[in-house]
Amino acid sequence: MMDKASRLKVALQKSGRLTDNSLDLLVRCGLKYSRGKDQLLCYGENMPLDLLLVRDDDIPDLVQQDVCDLGIVGLNVIEEKRLAFQARGIAPLFEQLQVLDFGKCRLSIAVPDGAKYDGPASLRGKRIATTYPNILARYLRENDVTAEIVTLSGAVEIAPRLGRADFICDLVSTGSTLLANHLREAEMIMESRAAIISTPVAVSAEKQAWIQRLRMRIDGVQQVKESKYIMLHAPRAKLADIRKLLPGSEAPTIVPLDGAGDKVAVHAVCRENVFWETLESLKGVGASSILVLPVEKMLA
Ligand code: PRP
Ligand code: ZN
């Protein structure tokens, strides 16, 4: 195992929408970790990799400052930081490596129940509370709207009730925060998901090799989530029809069946979920003994 300085440091959200999924992703990539007493540092036991659990908004800065090599954070935070750095004339020193398949949400304008909203023009001259001032400013600019941006560091949803703002611009995932605060989503500004960022600062060859390995494993984990292994028997003459029905499969394996005349076995990896309707259609064109199995791991 590598010495301390050459261990990869990965920043994750401490407690929030992305925490469980981020940890789960790394565990699926084979990581075994133990959590420190302070709960802020996890030590990778079988990989030269440690996890730093921090506020999501701090993750791009930690990567920018080269404290962490990688970070898992929402596209919303990445974009806000990128614009913030740009506004200050600083080049962002992090790059987006990979978009992940969790943490879906949207950054939206929300208005108090009963308030009128007829498109961006309704924002003119209003006070809008947000923790995303740069993304909001760009949106207002693009829509030719002048409004006052009230930048808060949290609890944006209570700003209208406190009289600090007319509207808010915040993340909406399930919508329960808005509902609980008598707000309604009026306009979506940006869609977001979790993504991995990395430092472009030259890391050692050893670290780079681990980043590559991790990326390949993450690709594999993301692919198997939807993938299925399908096996069936079919008359050889029906193979063309069957291949058309197999969702997202490349070259299936065709094996002759001993003593079954013209019948063959078809084995294929489908990169999309296989629904009952597909099985029924396969049966309809002559397939039988159809089995669908989950895929545990995949390496392209
Ligand atoms: C966002 C946002 C809302 C909540 C919305 O917080 O600020 O509080 O999630 O989710 P809901 O629609 O499911 O209720 P985030 O997870 O980014 O945490 P943070 O603001 O504390 O960083
Ligand atoms: Zn946050």
From TrEMBL:
<dbReference type="InterPro" id="IPR020621">
    <property type="entry name" value="ATP-PRT_HisG_long"/>
</dbReference>
<dbReference type="GO" id="GO:0000287">
    <property type="term" value="F:magnesium ion binding"/>
</dbReference>
<dbReference type="InterPro" id="IPR015867">
    <property type="entry name" value="N-reg_PII/ATP_PRibTrfase_C"/>
</dbReference>
<dbReference type="InterPro" id="IPR013820">
    <property type="entry name" value="ATP_PRibTrfase_cat"/>
</dbReference>
<keyword id="KW-0368">Histidine biosynthesis</keyword>
<dbReference type="GO" id="GO:0000105">
    <property type="term" value="P:L-histidine biosynthetic process"/>
</dbReference>
<protein>
    <recommendedName>
        <fullName>ATP phosphoribosyltransferase</fullName>
        <ecNumber>2.4.2.17</ecNumber>
    </recommendedName>
</protein>
<comment type="similarity">
    <text>Belongs to the ATP phosphoribosyltransferase family. Long subfamily.</text>
</comment>
<keyword id="KW-0963">Cytoplasm</keyword>
<keyword id="KW-0328">Glycosyltransferase</keyword>
<keyword id="KW-0479">Metal-binding</keyword>
<dbReference type="InterPro" id="IPR001348">
    <property type="entry name" value="ATP_PRibTrfase_HisG"/>
</dbReference>
<comment type="pathway">
    <text>Amino-acid biosynthesis; L-histidine biosynthesis; L-histidine from 5-phospho-alpha-D-ribose 1-diphosphate: step 1/9.</text>
</comment>
<feature type="domain" description="ATP phosphoribosyltransferase catalytic">
    <location>
        <begin position="55"/>
        <end position="219"/>
    </location>
</feature>
<keyword id="KW-0808">Transferase</keyword>
<comment type="function">
    <text>Catalyzes the condensation of ATP and 5-phosphoribose 1-diphosphate to form N'-(5'-phosphoribosyl)-ATP (PR-ATP). Has a crucial role in the pathway because the rate of histidine biosynthesis seems to be controlled primarily by regulation of HisG enzymatic activity.</text>
</comment>
<keyword id="KW-0028">Amino-acid biosynthesis</keyword>
<dbReference type="Pfam" id="PF08029">
    <property type="entry name" value="HisG_C"/>
</dbReference>
<keyword id="KW-0547">Nucleotide-binding</keyword>
<keyword id="KW-0067">ATP-binding</keyword>
<dbReference type="Pfam" id="PF01634">
    <property type="entry name" value="HisG"/>
</dbReference>
<dbReference type="InterPro" id="IPR018198">
    <property type="entry name" value="ATP_PRibTrfase_CS"/>
</dbReference>
<feature type="domain" description="Histidine biosynthesis HisG C-terminal">
    <location>
        <begin position="226"/>
        <end position="297"/>
    </location>
</feature>
<dbReference type="InterPro" id="IPR013115">
    <property type="entry name" value="HisG_C"/>
</dbReference>
<keyword id="KW-0460">Magnesium</keyword>
<dbReference type="GO" id="GO:0005524">
    <property type="term" value="F:ATP binding"/>
</dbReference>
<dbReference type="GO" id="GO:0003879">
    <property type="term" value="F:ATP phosphoribosyltransferase activity"/>
</dbReference>
<dbReference type="GO" id="GO:0005737">
    <property type="term" value="C:cytoplasm"/>
</dbReference>
<dbReference type="InterPro" id="IPR011322">
    <property type="entry name" value="N-reg_PII-like_a/b"/>
</dbReference>
